[in-house]
Structure formats: structure tokens, C-alpha cells
Amino acid sequence: MKPKGxxxxxxxxxxxxxxxxxxxxxxxVQQLGVSRQEGxxxxxxxxxxxxxxxxxxxxxxxxxxxxxxxxxxxxxxxxRP
Amino acid sequence: xxxxxTCELCPRRCVIPExxxxxxxxxxxxxxxxxxxxxxxxxxxxxxxxxxxxxYHFLPSSSAFSIATAGCNLHCLNxxxxxxxxxxxxxxxxxxxxxPADLVAxxxxxxCRSIAYTYSDPIVFYEYTRDTSALAQAAGLRNLxxxxxxxNRRPLRELCRVLDASNTDLKAFDDGFYQRxxxxxxxxxxxxxxxxxxxxxxxxxxxxxxxxxxxxxxMIRSMAKWIRDELGEGTPLHFSRFYPMYRMRxxxxxxADTLERARQEALAVGLHFxxxxxxxxxxxxxxxxxxxxxxxxxxxxxxxxxxxxxxDGRCPKCNEKxxxxxx
Lengths: 81, 327
Hints:
With 81 residues, chain A is mostly helical. Chain A is built from 2 helices and 2 strands.
């Protein structure tokens, strides 16, 4: 018996399955990205929105305590206060 | 030039590039300076009974003027205040404007005996908490820090100067749980609890018991022993009932008998005041004398239905001194 080739319906079904897999994969990657970002040390936020709210008086530009310029471990004497 | 800054407030020690925020979302690097963007801009303001914090040994039946801003340095999958804690200031629907002096005046006008820094985590709005607390202290109000305790020792010691009481979460006695469920770690929280005790801040501890994740009795026993040895047998411990929330809706509420077993375990280890919370009408929310077992304070929900303590906080039957701040 000769093996039958793929019919049009089969191809459509395969395409649909591939699309579904792609969508599920995309969702998982996005969720993993969220998990990685949490606790990763810093975050991107909408800084322009924050600045607009500061200018409007709805948020504050009060300087924070307990930070120092640059990166790396503790730099005694530079932490505030 | 991209001027990075390093935040030394909490154990994350975020290195934040210009235009970025710390992991807490609200400490933002603008032009090379770190800004406390929610200073003076709370998003939640309420008057609560102090029992809601929960603080059971601190000015019973008094009202606490309670405030919070956006942001948090933990990201608990079961957060009950995630709409507040997991957002930055620009994402909030409500942004009030209240300078520290305004909060103190409002607390006094509303007959509150304390100001509670609560709901999200006051560690991330540290400067606002500190400045308000200093003014409140001068005005004769008490300051309550309701926190997960994820803060470095030096800033906490500094803050303790103006604090009167804290309810600090000890979410599990397991670093793996902290990493998986909260994205934080256990050791700094234990250090914070010890620091609060050393600095003379009245301290109560809350453990939210989540089915299958942190309800192991052996772990609860270890935690209770640590509290007994490091914080003292008179430290109140609250076992609180979990309800499905936020990203943890796949687990059921904590069964009452799990909380009862946890309480028995902690009492057996030698803690004197072990409570069950978030379970309406349970006798485990009452205070009993550790010497003669007499009922001292009866509670239903956040309300006290009976208080038999003497004015100076003693058992009326055996005169045992009950630790706490009673007046």
C-alpha cells in the first residue's frame, strides 16, 4: 500500500497546533521574565510618569537616606545619614 | 553619564542606574540621586484597632492611625495588599498629600494613641516613617512598625530610636520558603527581630500558616524554640490563617486544626503567649495567664470583649506580671 500524503485538513490542524504551542511558549517566557525581574536588584519603571507626578506635586523628590553613589559593596562613611 | 547609586537600606542592596528604581519600585535614581518618591504621599490611610496589626499586648482597644504608601521590597505570592505593595507611585489611583505634621495632627484629631506604618512595608518608605515618627513621639503618640523585617541593621537601629512597637512577620523558619514565596531570605529577618528586641521596641511576631508550604510541625517547633531563645518566652507569637490571594489561589484556607496544632507546639516549647488570628471567635485569640491559666483578655475579631488585667498589666488572681505596654 502506498502511504498517503498529508491532506489539507491535516496541515491546517498542524498549523493550529503549532500556533497554540507558540502562544503557550511566549506566555511561559513572559512569566519567567517577570519572575527573573523580581528581586533582581533594580527595576525599570515609567520614570517620565514619575517625574510628571513630582512636578505636579503628587509625588516627591525628597532625597532618600542610606545610599551611596556608585556600585559594589558597603562604602563606610558614604551611607546616609 | 549614567550615575548609578547603591541603596543600602535593605539586604537587596540594589545598584540602580539613572532613571531606574530599586526592587521596591519607589526609591528612584533621578539625576544620580536616590529619591524617596512616595514621601508625603500615602495611598492608604485608615483608623484601625491596634488589635488588627496584630498587637495584643500594646495599648489594648486603642486606635492606630494607619498609613502606607506604594511599594514593597518583598514580592510575596500570597500578598494581601498587592494592589498597593506591587506598584510604584505613578501606578496608584490614590495619592494623598500629607506631610509628617499633617499625619500627626490627623492622628490626634481622631483620638488615636499611635501611628502605624503598615499595609505595604514601611521599610521602603523609611524616610517618611522616620520623620513622622519623630514628630509623633514629640507629640506623645506611639509609633508602630508593621513589617516583614527585611532591612539592614544600621538603618533599623536608627529607626528604633523613634519606634515603640513592632509586629514583624516571620514568614517561615526556612530560607527556601523565603526565596520561593517572597523573593527575600530568612537571615536578615532574624537579625531584624533580634535588633528590635535589643533596642527595646515592644515586639510581637506573626507567622502566616500556609497549607503544605510552611505548616510542618517540626519547622514550627524550631521557629518557636528560636523565638524563645533569642527573643524571650514572653514574646507574643500569632499564627495567622491564610486565605487564597494574589498569585496563590491554588491553596485552600488554613484548616483550624492546623493552627491549633501549631499553637500547641509553640506553647509546649515554652512560649507563653501564642495566638490564633484570622479565625473569628476562636479561643486561641484570648490572652491567658501563663502561671494560673486564668482568662485575662477575651477577643472576638479585632474587638476586646473582656479585659481583666489590672491597670499595671497583672493577672488579678496571681499577680503575675504580663509583658506588654498596657498604658
